[in-house]
Amino acid sequence: MSSDSEPSSPADRLAALRDGGRAAKAADRPRRLKLDAGITVELPSPRVLARVYALPILSADAEVYARDLVIVRRQAGTAAEPQVTPSAILVDELRASLEALPDRDDAGRPYRDLRIYLRDGDPVAVATYLYDTVKAARIAAPKWRPRVERQEREAPKTPTERQQESRPRLRAREIASAECFLQLWQEDADPGDRIEAPELYEEAAEEIGQWVKDAKQKPVPYAKDVERYGLPDKPRCPGPRTFYEVADKKLGPRVRGAQGVRVYVVSSIAADLIARTEHMNDQEEKRAA
Questions:
Q1: Using CA atoms, how far apart are residues 44 and 270, in angstroms rounded to an integer?
Q2: CA dist 156 to 149, 151, 160, 161, Å?
Q3: DSSP E strands: which ranges in the chain?
Q4: Can you tell me whether residue 24 is helix, strand or coil?
Q5: Is 211 helix (H, G, I), strand (E, B) or coil?
Q6: pLDDT band at residue 208, thresholds of 50, 70 and 90?
Q7: Is the per-residue pLDDT at 23 higher than 60?
Q8: What integer pLDDT is reported at residue 269 of this predicted model?
Q9: Which intervals carry biased composition (Basic and acidic residues) (predicted)?
């Protein structure tokens, strides 16, 4: 089927189709059907009918787009969100338009046979043919792409601003790590034991540093230790100042020892039990959260 001119209207383009010929693509080849009346009709393939007639007709008073597996339409010239038009409605519109086509002396066989098929063809087969045409129209329609409003981007944060935002979170991790270490250390110490503050910090830095390494390199075993021993989820080694602040609250203020070195004195058994109970309660609350 081919046309030697470029007709102006969908009806003209449909009338310009001629029978016979070999289409380059199988989907464009005409369909030849034998009706119950014994006559044979040659119909435009659904893809050809969609291209030359159906899509232009369905787009006559509206903008037509394909969105996923449906056709959406909106009033031409508006910015409204296009709405889904069910295939059944599109088939009815297409059928009504085709049935209203007049007799034409200049029309080719596909035009004339299509009118015969709509009138005398099997109703189920006709409906299937029209549904296939609507489907082909959807495939040929432009894809709907919602308009994306440009949003003003925030100015990128400076390294100083990023550091200031992350500092509270990092400090919270350091405090949690120090508290956990001190609780475990206190459980192994005897009441009245004394330890120099720098020595205690060195032990803490070594132990917490190992937690940090295990959390990064052995996340699964470390996660089990978190559950079993109450280790911090995200350990981070505190600096001396932060560590001593936590230790002063948990162990009591440092006292001056020999040669002026400040030391911590392990609390009494009663105080130790209280601290241990508080630690266990904290862990239960964390698990519940």
A1: 95
A2: 20, 14, 11, 10
A3: 31-34, 40-43, 62-67, 70-75, 83-85, 194-196, 255-256, 262-265
A4: coil
A5: helix
A6: very high
A7: yes
A8: 43
A9: 15-29, 146-170
**Amino acid symbol at 282:** D
The tens digit of pLDDT for each residue in 220-269 reads 989 988 888 889 999 999 999 999 999 999 888 888 877 778 888 886 54
> Are residues 195 and 259 in contact, defined by beta-carbon separation less than 8 angstroms?
no
- Average pLDDT, whole number, for the chain? 84
DSSP class of residue 189 equals S
Residue 19 or residue 284, greater confidence: 19
Q: How far is CA 155 from the centre of its chain?
A: 25
Query: Are the C-beta atoms of residues 240 and 151 closer than 8 Å to each other?
Result: no
| φ/ψ of residue 30, rounded to 5 | -65, 155
Residue type for position 248: D
Q: Say whether pLDDT at 164 is over 60.
A: yes
Instruction: Pull the structure tokens for residue 83.
Output: 């709405």
pTM: 0.50
CA distance 280 to 245: 21
Return d(Cα 282, Cα 179) in angstroms, integer. 11
Torsion of CA 276, 281, 284, 288, to 10 degrees: -160
